[in-house]
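Troubleshooting log. The previous run stalled partway through. Resubmitting the same two chains, unchanged.
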Amino acid sequence: MHPTTSAVTLAVAVFLASAVESVEALTIIVAAGVSRGWRSALEGMAVAIALLAVLVATLGPALVYLVPIDVLRVVVGGLLLVFGLQWLRKAVLRAVGLKAKHDEDAIFTKQLDALGGASQGRTGRDSAGFVVAFKGTFLEGLEVVIIVLGLGGGDHQLALAGAAAMAAVLVVAGVGVAVARQLAGVPENAMKTVVGLMLVSFGTFWAGEGLGVRWPGSDLAILGLVAAYAVVTFALVQALGGAQATPKQEQARA
Amino acid sequence: MPEPGTGPPQAPSPLPVRWAKAFGAFWWDFLVGDTPELLVGALAALGVVAALTKAVSANAAAIVAFPVLVVVLLAGSVYRARRPPS
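Second attempt completed without errors. Output:
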């Protein structure tokens, strides 16, 4: 595959994965802002983002320059494979009604209740608002960091992966400001399916390369893997489509 | 006489211990969570691919086997989620 095509595929994967995680973080930040005041919520978010940036800046170069590329690809590929399979599994189960869909409105309401309802124009600092916004941003962001380091480090494209993640955060933040709390309209399951497909495909490709597999067409094999896994996922959803929703089964396992 | 379950309050763990526990819990949840079969299956798939490429130099077999194992893993995990809990 032409290097540009490979880079675009990687950037799209990082962008979509980061966007999904950003939506989840934004839900928590907005809940903290509405209930405990915006100042503390935004400060919590800013501190978490700064900490995550430090993590990427320190761990990224260390991974890329100190770890042999084959070892890095097996470890990173294995991580992406497991992570991607988890996303894909959830997406399939949600698509056929075996798992409840991710409801940002429900999460928002739950967070709001936990924080004591809407504030009456608070402007000062609030430790609860800070902590909730910080934890929400940091934990969701940590998954973004792992994806950025995984996809970017495995292909020596850290700067591109970081830029794609930052672009996703900015886009989601912009949309979040524009639509306020209406995050439920984001087609999260479709995005998670695409991201899951890409993570599993990159994971298969890199882990295979690290173990000595010589893929036909080199990087072009990534697109072939994406297509093959997409067909299988579609077939799985179709095959399970007849099964009516029994979310209790999944809830009992969760 | 103190009520059952209301003993003296325990001293909180030192900060490094709490951080180590939180770090371990994050990775456990991240990699294992409620789908241990995916981690175990992925490791097994990597083992099979390593055996095919390193031990018997069967590159073509590895190219076919790896994605097939991944698909079997996904389908098996979805099937496991469909079964009523025993």
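Takeaways: The two ends of chain B are 42 Å apart (CA to CA). The longest helix of chain B spans residues 59-82.
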